[in-house]
């Protein structure tokens, strides 16, 4: 799994003109799933995200985690994180998991992360409009296949 994590002061996702999810302070997470991902990737990634200290303390140092600031998550499925641009000008998405694999893993990710922190979502496969105010800006990329 790949995740692009953005610290935000606010974020929302709109589908067909209606707000599907919105948060104040917290994290916007774009989540990409590949064919080789498992529940172990979900557990590892959630643990990493929830415990990551990327919010400022009283001195402005990144020492606080999501729970410390009572932040929320806006989670968006993003198969394009697995784009390959090695050949030609049109990206290939062959590494991205097909929906029969990706949807159950995405739904499991939602279920597990909601046990940890308030989480809003988009809709898998929908045409979504995501807006955010990146706080910092702070943007971090995590790949569960690169744990070392």
Question: Any overview of this molecule?
Answer:
The protein has one domain: D-tyrosyl-tRNA(Tyr) deacylase (D-tyrosyl-trna(Tyr) Deacylase, Chain: A, 3-Layer(bba) Sandwich). It contains two helices and eight strands, in the order E-E-E-H-E-E-E-H-E-E. Strands 1, 2, 3, 6, 7 and 8 form a six-stranded mixed beta sheet that branches. It has helices spanning 39-51, 99-114, and strands at residues 2-15, 18-23, 26-32, 55-56, 62-64, 72-77, 119-121, 128-143. The protein is 20% helix and 39% strand. The protein has 148 residues and is of the alpha/beta class.
Quaternary organisation: single chain
CATH H-level superfamily title: D-tyrosyl-tRNA(Tyr) deacylase
Question: Biggest sheet: strands, sense, closure?
Answer: 6 strands, mixed
**Classification by helices and strands:** alpha/beta
Order of helices and strands: EEEHEEEHEE
Q: What is the helical fraction, as a range of percent? A: 10-25%
CATH architecture name: 3-Layer(bba) Sandwich
Question: How many strands?
Answer: 8
Distance between the termini: 15 Å
Strand content: 35-45%
Low-confidence stretches: none
Tally of individual helices: 2
Count of distinct structural domains: 1
The averaged pLDDT comes out at 96
Which helices and strands appear, and what pairs or packs with what?
Blueprint: E1 2-15, E2 18-23, E3 26-32, H1 39-51, E4 55-56, E5 62-64, E6 72-77, H2 99-114, E7 119-121, E8 128-143
Helix pairs in contact: 1-2
């Amino acid at each position: 799994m790949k995740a692009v994590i953005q610290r935000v002061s606010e974020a929302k996702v709109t589908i067909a003109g209606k707000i599907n999810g919105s948060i104040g302070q917290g994290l916007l997470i774009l989540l990409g799933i590949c064919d080789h991902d498992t529940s172990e990737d979900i557990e590892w990634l959630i643990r990493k995200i929830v415990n990551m200290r990327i919010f400022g303390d009283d001195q402005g140092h990144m020492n606080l985690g999501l729970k410390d600031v009572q932040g929320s998550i806006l989670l968006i499925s993003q198969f394009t994180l697995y784009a390959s641009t090695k050949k030609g000008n049109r990206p290939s998405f062959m590494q991205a998991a097909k929906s029969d694999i990706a949807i159950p893993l995405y739904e499991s990710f939602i279920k597990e992360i909601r046990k940890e922190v308030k989480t809003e979502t988009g809709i898998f496969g929908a045409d979504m409009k995501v807006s955010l105010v990146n706080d910092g800006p702070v943007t971090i990329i995590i790949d569960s296949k690169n744990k070392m």
